[in-house]
Every structure is written in structure tokens, then in C-alpha cells.
Design brief:
The chain has eight helices and 23 strands. It is α+β, with helices and mostly antiparallel strands. Strands 13, 16, 19, 20, 21, 22 and 23 form a seven-stranded mixed beta sheet that branches. The protein starts with a strand and ends in a 7-residue tail after the last helix.
């Protein structure tokens, strides 16, 4: 039986979605759960998974097309099945897929297997398939990798094939991953603004329409450093994860912000909504671009739970497997550049949230205390807030309270 693939509705306000990329070509066999298309909403880019196993018989739209939600965009069925479908925007379709037409002289593999093989530069002709009719599955590629270990997905291949290419030492100015450069003069490289990069661009453009103000403060992190040092082996022994400063920040922000409801708020249709839950988003750099997973109800979580949640979300983000539900309903975002040589910066609000907290690196610094100079671990915070929702005084009060708690984190246990 032919199954329809429809443009999903991912939220009450979503009316259309854009097909960014087809992840499986027509004629490919896909298993239920395999990603078949990448779509972009007004908020995120995510993958549509096949809800049934079978051959991708037909796609109705080209990449880049904008499609109304719940509209059919593709069909999945058996190799020789006919598609008879009437759509409002399409003439009657009657297409026959001849048996084995698409598999003649072609390696049978699932999209997930193809994606993994592409990442690790694996020739699928060398991978034995264990699926139906010799179909190569993701697990087959994983088994092949386990038995033929490579040190790096791309580096060996790139250096062998393109010995004149070297990698640039860090991210380019747009925040993208290092781009191979050559000692020789090369043509300009152009990258179409699509996927997560386009979502980020649209959201940041939208954000710049907001009247926003940034306050900055320097924090003595000496006690936090000591707290992390003491708790790190305990938490690692409990769940195997290393406690990070970001985890501590999420805990302390969630604890502090409850006294300042307009900072844990959003602007929705001319209404300021002060949220009952504290859902902290935190920016994660991934191979595909910046994403912001959300720790829900952070005000109820201890450091062990926060550490587990953050590590799981980071892993999913970097594997490209974050779900839409794991990135929505954030009420405040933390952007931490502390692992770089960055002391302070001006973060941009993630709409419709009321504020975002920028975090710089922790570093030792001479500080005057009671007319004596002492070396302290210091860190700078930048709080950018939407001045339509929050005035300067409550924003300053929140940042001061946050600084006070970070400088004396043991009050969390009172």
C-alpha cells in the first residue's frame, strides 16, 4: 500500500515549511525511521523520517520549495506499486515504478547507511548488506567501521587526494567550520544560505528588530571553581559525566531568575507572558551550525540531572539528531564562549525570549580586596534584554543577584 509523506505541522503558528534537501533519491529503499528529507520551518531545520518501509516512489517538490503543512510531498510503497492520487495543486498522478528499475546496477542501501558511509568515506561496494535482498543498513556500515578502523572520517582521504590542501587554524568569520585553504591563489568559495545557517540568519535578523540593551558585570568565580573541583569526581562517579561550568551556570540562573519573572518571559501577540517553568536554552556549535537545545524545568533539577541532560542534548545536537521538542519553549538562553580566548561579547536575543546571557572565559586576574591585591578567578557576564519587556533596573538587579550567587554558590544549599 502506498504511504503518503506530508509536510508536518510543528507548532500552532506553522503554516508552511521549506524542503531544504531530499536525503533519499527516488527509487531508494528506505526503512521506517530513516531520514528522507530535511525541512526548514520558521524556527528550525529538521529531518523528516519515513513512517513506513518501502521504496521512495515519487517526490512532488524540488529542493527549496515552500509547501503548506499537511500537504503530500512524497510517496513510499513497493517497487511496482502505482500511485493514484489527486491533489488540489497537482493533476492526477499515475506513475508506475517498474520492478527492479531503480536497483539495476545500483547498490541497495538505506539513506542512513549512505549518510554514514559518506561521512567516513566508505565505498559501499565493500560493505556486505544484511537487509532484505542484500540491502546495506546503517548497522552494516557500523560493523564495517568497527572491523576497519580509521582515525578520522575525512582527514586521511582529503590529504591523500588533495595533498596541497591544508586546514585553516580556526572558524572563519561567519562562525562556520574551518575551510580548506591553499598556499596558492584559489577562487572565492560560495555557500548557499540554507538549512540551519539560514535559520540562524533569519532569527538574528528578526532579533535585530528588537530594542535590546546589554549590561555587563565581572564575577569572582573562585568559589565556583572550588565547588566544581569538589563536585566533579562525585558527579562523574555517579553518572559518568563531567560537571561543566555551563551546568553550574544553568543551575544558578534557574535558581536566581525565579525572583525576576520578567526576565523569564516572552512577548506573544502584544502580551508579556511570564513563564512558570524555567527552560534554559544553551547554544551548541555543531558541524551543521548553531543550535539551541533546551533544559526544561531547570528550576527543579539538581546538578546531576542537569549534567546528564546537557550531555545527552549536546551529543544529539552534534549527531544531528535533536528533535523539535528538544529545542522549543526556551525561556532564556545562555551563550558560553568561555572555552575560547573571549572575555566578553554582546549576545543577541533568541526571540521571543526576554533575555540572553553571554558568558566569557574564566581566568586568573589581580583583584583589589580590602586594599590588598589578590589573584582571583574572574569571568565576565553580558546580559542582553528586550527593553519592551524588561526595564534596566530589574535587569540590573537580576544580573547583580546572579553575580552574588555565583560568588557564593554554597547559598544554593540553604
Amino acid at each position: 500500500m502506498v504511504s503518503k509523506v506530508v509536510m508536518p505541522k510543528l507548532g500552532a503558528t506553522m503554516e508552511k515549511g521549506t524542503i531544504v534537501k531530499w536525503l533519499a533519491p527516488v527509487g531508494d529503499y528506505v526503512e521506517s525511521g530513516d531520514p528522507i528529507a530535511e525541512i526548514q520551518t520558521d524556527k528550525i531545520t529538521l529531518e523528516i523520517e519515513a513512517e513506513a518501509s518501502g521504496v521512495l516512489l515519487k517526490t512532488l517538490y524540488d529542493e527549496g520549495s515552500e509547501v503548506t503543512v499537511q500537504e503530500v510531498i512524497a510517496y513510499i510503497g513497493q517497487e511496482d506499486e502505482k500511485i493514484i492520487e489527486k491533489c488540489e495543486d497537482h493533476i492526477t498522478e499515475e506513475t508506475t515504478i517498474e520492478g527492479n528499475l531503480f536497483f539495476k546496477d545500483k547498490i541497495r542501501r538505506t539513506p542512513a547507511a549512505r549518510k554514514l558511509a559518506r561521512i567516513y568515506q566508505i565505498n559501499l561496494e565493500n560493505v556486505p548488506g544484511t537487509g532484505r535482498m542484500g540491502m546495506i543498513k546503517k548497522s552494516d556500515v557500523e560493523n564495517y567501521l568497527a572491523n576497519n578502523k580509521k582515525t578520522s572520517p575525512l582527514s586521511d582521504t582529503v590529504h591523500l587526494k588533495e595533498p596541497h590542501l591544508v586546514s585553516s587554524p580556526g572558524p572563519d568569520q561567519s562562525g562556520n567550520k574551518p575551510i580548506p585553504i591553499s598556499a596558492e591563489v584559489v577562487d572565492d568559495q560560495r555557500m548557499k544560505l540554507t538549512g540551519i545557517r539560514k535559520v540562524v540568519a533569519d532569527r538574528m535578523t528578526q532579533s535585530m528588530q528588537i530594542p535590546q540593551v546589554t549590561l555587563m558585570s565581572e564575577v569572582d568565580m573562585t568559589n565556583c571553581v572550588e565547588l566544581r573541583k569538589n563536585l566533579l569526581p562525585i558527579i562523574e562517579k555517579t553518572n559518568g559525566f563531567r560537571l561543566s561550568y555551563n551546568d553550574i551556570l544553568i543551575k544558578i540562573v534557574a535558581h536566581t531568575i525565579r525572583r525576576y519573572p520578567t526576565l523569564n518571559a516572552s512577548l506573544q501577540n502584544d502580551e508579556i507572558v511570564c513563564h512558570s517553568s524555567v527552560n534554559i536554552g544553551f547554544a551548541v556549535d555543531t558541524p551543521a551550525g548553531l543550535v539551541v537545545p533546551v533544559v526544561k524545568n531547570a528550576q527543579k533539577l539538581g546538578l546531576v540531572s542537569i549534567t546528564e541532560t546537557c550531555n545527552q542534548l549536546i551529543r544529539l545536537a552534534r549527531e544531528g539528531n535533536l528533535k523539535y521538542e528538544q529545542m522549543r519553549e526556551g525561556t532564556l538562553t545562555i551563550s558560553n564562549l568561555g572555552k575560547y580566548e573571549i572575555d566578553e561579547f554582546t549576545p543577541i536575543i533568541n526571540p521571543p525570549e526576554a533575555a540572553i546571557l553571554g558568558v566569557g572565559r574564566i581566568r586568573p586576574k589581580p583583584v583589589v580586596i580590602n586594599e590588598e591585591i589578590k589573584i582571583k578567578s574572574t569571568m565576565k557576564l553580558s546580559l542582553t534584554f528586550d527593553h519592551r519587556i524588561v526595564d534596566g533596573a530589574p535587569a540590573a538587579a537580576f544580573l547583580s543577584a546572579l553575580k552574588e550567587t555565583l560568588e557564593c554558590p554554597y547559598q544554593l544549599f540553604m
